[in-house]
Automatic annotation (TrEMBL):
InterPro entries: RNA_pol_sigma-70-like, RNA_pol_sigma-70_dom, RNA_pol_sigma70_r2, RNA_pol_sigma70_r4_t2, RNA_pol_sigma_r2, RNA_pol_sigma_r3/r4-like, WH-like_DNA-bd_sf. Residues 126-177 form the RNA polymerase sigma factor 70 region 4 type domain. Residues 11-20 have a biased composition (Basic and acidic residues). Residues 37-99 form the RNA polymerase sigma-70 region domain. This is RNA polymerase sigma-70 factor (ECF subfamily). It comes from the Bacteria. Residues 1-32, 223-256 are annotated as: Disordered. Pfam families: Sigma70_r2, Sigma70_r4_2. Belongs to the sigma-70 factor family. ECF subfamily. NCBIfam families: sigma70-ECF. Residues 21-30 have a biased composition (Low complexity).
Length: 256
């Protein structure tokens, strides 16, 4: 995948809840970075936790991605979907982090419960997050990119710089392992026919995809309600920008 992350391809993998009410007139994203940050950080942080299974790693990758956007906001704000660009930067930072570490840390969630969440929703979300944290990093990354970003095997392979067959094999193993840990029935269709999930929501009957989507939404609600953490994260960005702690190139989209 090229570094041109303002493309339509990147935007095609964004979750359905992003890019809605915060859009300005004419459907354009807000030109103000603070509005963009407030609107998109909870969903991006939720997705980062799903990808890596560790709250601190997720926070670090999200902050780095938003800092890159802030330092290049004159350019990024002109993209059709700047949140797609920030998502791509976040994913690649997490992938580099996981590859360097060789093995991921177990989940350190430290997430406040969403006020409107029912007890069974919270219990299910915690089961999913615990099971996801037990997956090998590559299986987890591929599973989330396929199930929540609605990416094809080829697009996942391009994003992670791996072979399509490797992406396909890790998806199969990831689904099998996660299903087993969650006590869900095996897939009844060949893997190539498993419906993608994303802007249209989980496909009917795909209980694994539904569980992942519900957990992602649960996390997003928790992060949206944590206004203090949101303010602290924004202040942290301002401090890093002022101290010149950015990555210099601002795009963060080099090969993992």
């Amino acid at each position: 995948m090229s570094g041109g992350t303002g493309s339509a391809r990147a935007g095609a993998h964004e979750p359905a809840r992003e890019g809605g009410a915060e859009a300005s007139e004419g459907g354009r994203p807000p030109a103000d970075f603070d509005a963009f940050f407030t609107a998109h950080r909870p969903a991006l942080l939720a997705r980062a936790v799903m990808l890596c299974g560790n709250r601190q790693d997720a926070e670090d990758a999200v902050q780095d991605a938003f800092l890159a956007a802030l330092e290049n906001w004159d350019r990024i704000s002109g993209y059709e979907q700047p949140n797609a660009w920030v998502n791509l930067v976040m994913r690649r930072k997490l992938w580099r982090m996981l590859r360097l570490r060789l093995r991921a840390k177990r989940a350190t969630l430290d997430v406040s419960l969403p006020r409107q969440a029912l007890p069974d929703e919270t219990a299910q979300a915690r089961r999913v997050l615990t099971a996801m944290a037990a997956l090998p990093p590559r299986q987890r990354m591929v599973l989330v990119m396929y199930s929540l970003y609605a990416m094809t095997h080829e697009e996942i392979a391009d994003d992670l710089n791996i072979a399509p067959s490797t992406a396909r094999g890790n998806l199969r193993k990831g689904r099998d392992n996660l299903r087993r840990m969650l006590g869900l029935d095996p897939d009844t269709n060949p893997l190539g026919e498993v419906p993608l999930v994303g802007t249209g929501g989980p496909a009917p009957g795909d209980r694994l995809a539904a569980a992942l989507s519900a957990t992602d939404s649960w996390l997003c609600s928790a992060f949206e309600e944590d206004e203090q953490a949101q303010r602290q994260a924004r202040a942290g960005l301002a401090g890093r920008q002022g101290n010149g702690n950015g990555n210099g190139n601002g795009n963060g989209t080099g090969r993992a």
